[in-house]
Design a protein that fits this description.
The chain is 25% helix and 35% strand. It is an alpha+beta fold. It has two domains: 228 residues, 3-Layer(aba) Sandwich (Rossmann fold); 89 residues, Nucleic acid-binding proteins (OB fold (Dihydrolipoamide Acetyltransferase, E2P), Beta Barrel). Bound molecules: adenosine-5'-triphosphate and magnesium ion (MG). Adenosine-5'-triphosphate binds next to α1.
């Protein structure tokens, strides 16, 4: 498999603040890589460093096998969609999209057909002659996306490109984007803090935490077997449940399990039902196992508040000092 992007030991500081800390990442040819992380974790900084707007304090950036660390942004063969769009305000939609091609001295005819094709694809062809300052946030975002997609770089970098679309449009745009990426066959590095985007778009997800990649892999793998308690807590609609291993014969550890991994009958950890939420396929039953600790178990039967239950995970992730050591089945 060809590696399109290789980040080697990238460190980036602002003053004494370390944002990227010896970060390593490989993105394969044709791969949809989603970088997921909480706000302020350095996702934008990472993309800006790859594209060359920021210089790393140390480390190397390899694009298509070529070390581009010391090259200016326009000599890196990358195309980026910025979080804040960065459109040219005194130009209309057409000229904004055409701009990178014009810079590359592409023929006028080719520019024209390319711009129209991409504008149509992203459903902004109606607004093609409008000045970009008159567009809505969602339209601006699609122009920014079009301006990136009109080019043919080694790799696309996208910084939360759908965040300003409303829910329904975002859903459609997400499907479109996934299809565009597969049709182009190009590698995407797509930054988001939205877990459902990560879940639905990514071939692999890389979670950014404390300046490095906490874990990388298919979403399901990270969701089921997070390498750290931090990640188990961060990923998913609900945080992973964590209990002291003492409860289940694994002293000195923490046991992590997802809400649909446990039964509420037979043996197990004594608990009291404190909240019941109805879902499409069962009841998310919130249980208190001592005064403050609450865990969530999906139950088939509707229980009542105050019911006494016993929680028995059928599958358990064992964490020692916050790190996953093994997974066991009951
Ligand atoms: N030019 C800069 N000078 C100083 N600090 C900066 C600069 N750019 C970013 N930072 C800091 O680096 C950290 C990471 O910021 P960054 O914008 O990369 O996060 P992010 O993950 O993209 O966040 P968000 O999800 O909100 O977009 C923040 O603490 C931010 O304040
Ligand atoms: Mg950002």
């Amino acid at each position: 498999m060809t590696v399109k992007l290789n980040l080697k030991d990238i460190t980036k500081k602002f003053g004494s603040k370390v944002v990227l800390n010896r970060l390593n990442l490989e993105v394969n040819e044709g791969e949809f890589m989603v970088i997921l992380g909480p706000s302020g974790m350095g996702k934008t900084t990472m993309l800006r460093t790859i594209v060359g707007i920021e210089q790393p304090n140390s480390g190397r950036i390899i694009v298509d096998g070529v070390d581009v660390t010391d090259r200016p942004p326009n000599k890196r063969n990358l195309s980026m969609v910025f979080q804040n769009y960065a459109l040219y305000p005194n130009m209309n939609v057409y000229k904004n999209i055409a701009f990178p091609l014009k810079m590359a001295h592409v023929s006028r005819q080719t520019i024209d057909s390319k711009v129209k094709e991409v504008a149509k694809l992203l459903n902004i062809d109606q607004a093609i002659n409008q000045n970009v300052t008159t567009l809505s946030g969602g339209q601006k975002q699609r122009v920014a996306l079009a301006r990136a997609l009109v080019r043919d770089p080694a790799l696309f970098l996208l910084d939360e490109p759908l965040s300003n679309l409303d829910a329904r449009v975002r859903y459609t745009a997400r499907q479109e984007l996934k299809k565009i990426q597969k049709d182009l066959g190009k590698s995407f590095v797509y930054v988001t803090h939205d877990q459902s985007e990560a879940q639905n778009l990514a071939d692999r997800v890389a979670v950014l935490h404390n300046g490095t990649i906490e874990q990388i892999g298919p979403y399901e793998e990270l969701y089921n077997y997070p390498v750290s308690e931090w990640l188990g807590d961060f990923l998913g609609e609900f945080p992973m449940n964590f209990v002291d291993g003492d409860n289940l014969g694994y002293p000195g550890t923490h046991i992590g399990f997802r809400h649909n991994w446990a039964r509420l009958s037979g043996d197990g950890i004594p608990a009291t039902v404190v909240l019941v939420e109805i879902t499409d396929d069962g009841y998310n039953t919130h249980c208190a196992i001592d005064n403050e600790k609450q865990i969530i178990v999906k139950a088939e039967k509707k229980l009542s508040l105050g019911d006494k239950v016993k929680i028995m995970p059928q599958k358990m992730n064992i964490y020692e000092e916050g790190k996953l050591t093994k997974t066991v089945s009951a």
